[in-house]
């Protein structure tokens, strides 16, 4: 079926274009003859949140003043005020969906006069190729997890299967001109080339897990509204990181003052500034010196997606503190004000909503809680028994270097438990930065349709049975018992 649209530049459409032409996405920003025209000048005069804020999208002009306080991304909406929101939407691709187009059109006030609709560059066009086996949750930015059953095949997660959590396009950095800046606030600044890092400092190798604070968010989402990437249990991996101690660089710089915090800035950035975080100096300078600037992952130069050429590894800390593509480290007395540090990765209560939370009141999340998951078989699988038993495998991990003390599996909702066998990774000065993989065989006669796991760490911390009491709208730190449904013959 063909359809001719009023817009002359569109002409005759094929069927797939026709379906598109009926979509919200297509209609958003199209010229509307029932509305007045505004010039770019007119629009640029409306960027005062106290009075009025206008933005453009393609040929559409929108008054978003009343929407600012409801914008899920908060005041970021002001980045586009008085001009086009397209560059930001291309960066934050989650906007490209029918509901958002529809909402935008509800704020429509006019057309852009003499609009020359620019074809905007795709900031993600140089992102690297990824392993198609990965379970992809989003492409721009790229977010993908290891298929959960493959996770437990290796104590060291292969580079091309290690989960990827990007917030922005992958920066491409020339290793020849790369410089790491170390700024001693209001004092002096040092620059290190890759050669400096490799030749001036002792090399160390540390096996450490990285786990995203949102690991298992998809489970939490069954209990209420949560926001973020819908990870299953695969937003975790363990790798051997080789690099130099950040402590050694700081000792080399020899600050004359005892700073409290290190602000870490990365090369990936958006109009708000660089991606980055804050690490307390006490962690960097402790007697272990295990916070490293890694140049290699599992014996290879860091892959582009994992921070080439230099990433920070902060063992025992939540994923986001392990900053990729490190650009600058500044020492300071105060905690970093970077938006990614101040306005994210904080844990709220069950009744907190985006409208009532006070980010300033909450401390940043550093060490993680104790976690475990069943990876093999996968949820919903039909299991087979060998000699009357079914094998279950998974991982357990605890933040802060706590050792996994035990892992137990139940087939009867917690009445009785099977202790699993653990295969632990090496500890460094009694700190367990990596995970324990576990395995157990359960008689098929005992199996019902659900199997759950929980772990206990060396401090006696364990996992709560239920998710509902730990629900938080950001979907962080879900460490409730991990349960899977199974069928058996
Ligand atoms: N520069 C930079 N560092 C970053 C991120 C990022 O988007 N940019 N994501 C963080 C988050 S939230 C996590 S969980 C880990 C993921 O590391 P990976 O992609 O190597 O698995 O990187 C952290 N470091
Ligand atoms: Mo993360």
UniProtKB/TrEMBL annotation:
The cofactor required is:
Mo-molybdopterin; heme b
Q: Which enzyme type, at the first EC level?
A: oxidoreductase
Q: Give the keywords, sorted.
A: Heme, Iron, Metal-binding, Mitochondrion, Molybdenum, Oxidoreductase
Query: Which E.C. number(s) belong to this protein?
Result: 1.8.3.1
Q: Which domain of life is it from?
A: Eukaryota
Location of the Cytochrome b5 heme-binding domain: 35-113
Output the Gene Ontology cellular-component terms.
mitochondrial intermembrane space
The subcellular localization recorded is: Mitochondrion intermembrane space
For this chain's UniProt record, which GO biological process terms are given?
A: sulfur compound metabolic process
Pathway(s) of this molecule: Energy metabolism; sulfur metabolism
- What are the protein's GO molecular function terms? heme binding; molybdenum ion binding; molybdopterin cofactor binding; sulfite oxidase activity
What family is reported?
Answer: Belongs to the cytochrome b5 family.
Q: What is this protein called?
A: sulfite oxidase
